[in-house]
Design a protein that fits this description.
By secondary structure, this protein is α+β, with helices and mostly antiparallel strands. It contains twelve helices and twelve strands.
Length: 328
């Protein structure tokens, strides 16, 4: 069964839109599934499994669409080539597919991007996921504005997030866009606010998944950011200030902040916090509760004085609690 709520006078994926469209679908029928995916996402698919169970909640915006999708069985799906770029955060189960001619399996807590202009074959195994999508045209336009270059190229081979920090920032950005823009009529109806929020979603995706081959003109600044992140990674257990990072990068503090915003979509200190969370995760994995290792003690070793805030940040980054990691 497919249930849709569209703005007056609209259906499917109309553009422009004064308000988002909401589409809910629940089906065990392959033909209904094909129609639901086409209406909600603009994809043409061909299920090769007749026994299936699928639910989806889709919010179709202009130009960003987000959704929650759930598959209660293992399903094989062939996806036609499209101009759409879709990002998928897997909450449970697994997706196996073949972007760029290589086989990938994406499991719980991981994310991936479906590149445009490729025919893809999926095996979806009892999966629950959230998605975010927009056209490759929007991606190229925003990337061109960032680098002031009309000929930016989409990077080949991009599938997974570049690192945990950018993955976390992308997830938070999409969550905020959904709640504060798509689900807030007064914000969505303001074209300027929606345009700026959309740009941040696209920039976050470019940064998180390494979607664009950066023009040569940006190499010097990228080298500065690489110096900064390498220094932070080496000193992340120590007290760190923005001034320390700027000195390592050989930039002013303002130049450092602008470079991080432009290239990574985050502040320098956000990178520090996530680098420390990554270090804490390694200690949690190696930890042993029978030796007295605790989440509180390990987080404190990494500079987190508030265990509750550490737990929240850790869960947002890795999709599980630090206690669960420690107890494995």
């Amino acid at each position: 069964m497919i249930r849709a709520r569209h703005p007056a006078g609209t259906c499917g994926r109309p553009l422009p839109m004064s308000s988002p469209s909401f589409l809910d679908a629940e089906t065990t029928n392959a033909d209904e599934l094909t129609a639901a995916i086409s209406t909600g996402f603009g994809y043409r698919i061909a299920p090769t499994t007749r026994a299936l169970s699928h639910r989806q909640h889709v919010i179709v915006g202009d130009p960003v669409t987000v959704a929650d999708v759930e598959w209660d069985t293992e399903v094989r799906v062939a996806v036609d080539s499209t101009d759409e770029v879709m990002f998928v955060q897997v909450h449970s189960g697994a997706y196996a597919f073949n972007p760029w001619g290589a086989e990938h399996v994406i499991g719980e807590g991981e994310a991936f991007v479906m590149p445009p202009d490729q025919e893809l074959d999926f095996v979806i195994d009892h999966a629950y996921a959230s998605t975010c999508s927009f056209s490759a045209q929007v991606l190229r336009r925003v990337a061109g504005e960032i680098w002031d270059d009309e000929d930016v190229c989409l990077a080949e081979g991009a599938v997974r997030p570049v690192d945990a920090a950018r993955h976390w920032l992308w997830r938070r950005t999409v969550q905020e866009y959904r709640q504060q823009v798509l689900e807030t009529p007064e914000v969505y109806g303001n074209e300027l606010l929606r345009a700026q929020a959309t740009r941040f979603v696209v920039v976050s995706a470019i940064s998180a998944f390494g979607l664009v081959t950066e023009p040569r003109g940006g190499a010097e600044e990228s080298a500065a950011v690489r110096r900064a992140t390498a220094w932070v990674d080496e000193h992340r257990r120590e007290p760190i200030t923005v001034q320390d990072i700027a000195a390592a990068a050989r930039l002013s503090t303002r130049g450092l902040s602008l470079a991080f915003r432009r290239e990574r979509g985050q502040t320098p200190m956000e990178y520090v916090r996530l680098a420390r969370v990554d270090g804490a995760r390694a200690d949690l994995i190696a930890g042993d509760p029978t030796r007295g290792d605790t989440v509180t003690s390990i987080s404190a070793d990494w500079g987190f004085s508030n265990a509750g805030r550490f737990t929240a940040l850790y869960r947002q980054t890795y999709g599980e609690t630090p206690r669960r990691t420690l107890m494995r």
